UniProtKB/TrEMBL annotation:
Identification of the protein by name: Aspartate aminotransferase
Self-association state and partner proteins as the record states: Homodimer.
Catalytic activity: L-aspartate + 2-oxoglutarate = oxaloacetate + L-glutamate
EC number(s) from the headed UniProt entry: 2.6.1.1
Cofactors that this protein relies on: pyridoxal 5'-phosphate
Gene source species: Heracleum sosnowskyi
UniProt cross-references to CDD domains, sorted A to Z: AAT_like (cd00609)
């Protein structure tokens, strides 16, 4: 039978989500998925936070709750509390009503709404993104109507930050260009600037009127401290300048499937913030009309209740600490095996991901011989590891590096 869509070409698998597709087809009992950035327990299972269960139970027990549409901008409490979480409760920008926050569909949706707003209302249509960056970033901004360019970020030789290259490229960017910055736990490299380096980046960007657009997917999940992980954003807000910030609660509350996020735009004046919000509504309305209620209600319940909030910070720190301990265990295992090379970057990098430095041939070898799945750039999710699986991964890395099949 012929179809009117028979000329449609099969699209390639998403490079990240495709890893899980291949993993699911593998019948090996030793298979290990280190591709997708989702937290796993020591037993390799997804984690539903206790505080999320408690918040959900409170919502279920609230007989006054209804399922009416939210406003276009989302749940008011959620927006207000999200801005406080990232900018700080005492932020002058919040106190002066210079921030507008809208609830969006997790981090991806927040970036897309921000990108489309900038394409319509900002004078510069070029966005600079780090090289490398999350694979979805260039697609999001291109489809939003922006022109995407890159700046140097990662140095493969040191497996650390190419700070000089970053400053040089941002210094060469046209005045007013948009610059995407990972707030913390850079994906995929796990390499972040120091606070001193962030200050230099801020000075350079402000001197050239570059517009910062922060992607904050891991606040509290990187170091275990919500405040420490927001420092990069806060130093840009503290100077009175303008910026954008996309937030996601997928990782730090384990709300992956609820698609809970926020876009905040910090303006120079309250009047500008009000006008910006009116235009954000015009971006959102024809896109998805209004955001979902349930996930945002969970987040708002946790952020506004001091007991729930404190419980969340403890669970969040426990997740971050487990990832940090996995880094140490993997490093120690490679050291014990005498695996050639310097593997100290594994413990120096931060957050969910480690950029191992393995090349695509080595990755393919590890998948074929050891049933270990990761993206071809050698990025692994440390959250997918456990004490039980670290030795298997260390064996595979050792064999891939030494050529011992």
């Amino acid at each position: 039978m012929s179809s009117v869509f028979s000329n449609v070409v099969r699209a390639p698998e998403d490079p990240i989500l495709g890893v899980t597709v291949a993993y699911n087809k593998d019948q090996s009992p030793n298979k290990l998925n280190l591709g997708v950035g989702a937290y796993r327990t020591e037993q390799g299972k997804p984690l539903l936070l206790n505080v999320v269960k408690r918040a959900e139970q409170m919502l279920v027990n609230d007989q006054s709750r209804i399922k009416e549409y939210l406003p276009i901008v989302g749940l008011a409490d959620f927006n207000k509390l999200s801005a406080k979480l990232i900018f700080g409760a005492d932020s002058p920008a919040i106190q002066e009503n210079r921030v507008t926050t809208v609830q969006c569909l997790s981090g991806t949706g927040s970036l897309r709404v921000g990108g489309e707003f900038l394409a319509r209302h900002y004078h510069e249509r070029t966005v600079y993104i780090p090289q490398p960056t999350w694979g979805n970033h260039p697609k999001i901004f291109t489809l939003a109507g922006l022109s995407v360019k890159t700046y140097r970020y990662y140095n493969p030789e040191t497996r650390g930050l190419d700070f000089e290259g970053m400053l040089e490229d941002l210094g060469s960017a046209p005045s007013g260009a948009i610059v995407l910055l990972h707030a913390c736990a850079h994906n995929p490299t796990g390499v972040d600037p120091t606070i001193e380096q962030w200050e230099q980046i801020r000075q350079l960007m402000r001197s050239k009127s570059l517009l910062p657009f922060f992607d904050s997917a891991y606040q509290g999940f990187a170091s275990g401290s919500l405040d420490a992980d927001a420092q990069s954003v806060r130093i840009f807000v503290a100077d009175g300048g303008e910026c954008l910030a996309a937030q996601s609660y997928a990782k730090n509350m384990g709300l992956y499937g609820e698609r809970v996020g926020a876009l905040s735009i910090v303006c120079k004046t309250a009047d500008a913030a009000s006008k910006v919000e009116s235009q954000l509504k015009l971006v959102i309305r024809p896109m998805y009309s209004s955001p979902p209620l349930h996930g945002a209600s969970i987040v708002a319940a946790i952020l506004k209740d001091s007991d729930l909030y404190n419980e969340w910070t403890l669970e969040l720190k426990a997740m971050a600490d487990r990832i940090i301990s996995m880094r140490q265990e993997l490093f120690d295992a490679l050291q014990a095996k005498g695996t050639p090379g310097d593997w100290s970057h594994i413990v120096k990098q931060i957050g969910m991901f480690t950029f191992t430095g393995l090349n695509s041939e080595q990755v393919t070898f590890m998948t074929n011989e050891y049933h270990i799945y990761m993206t071809f750039d050698g990025r692994i999710s440390m959250a997918g590891l456990s004490s039980r699986t670290v030795p298997h991964l260390a064996d595979a890395i050792h064999a891939a590096v030494t050529g011992d099949a």
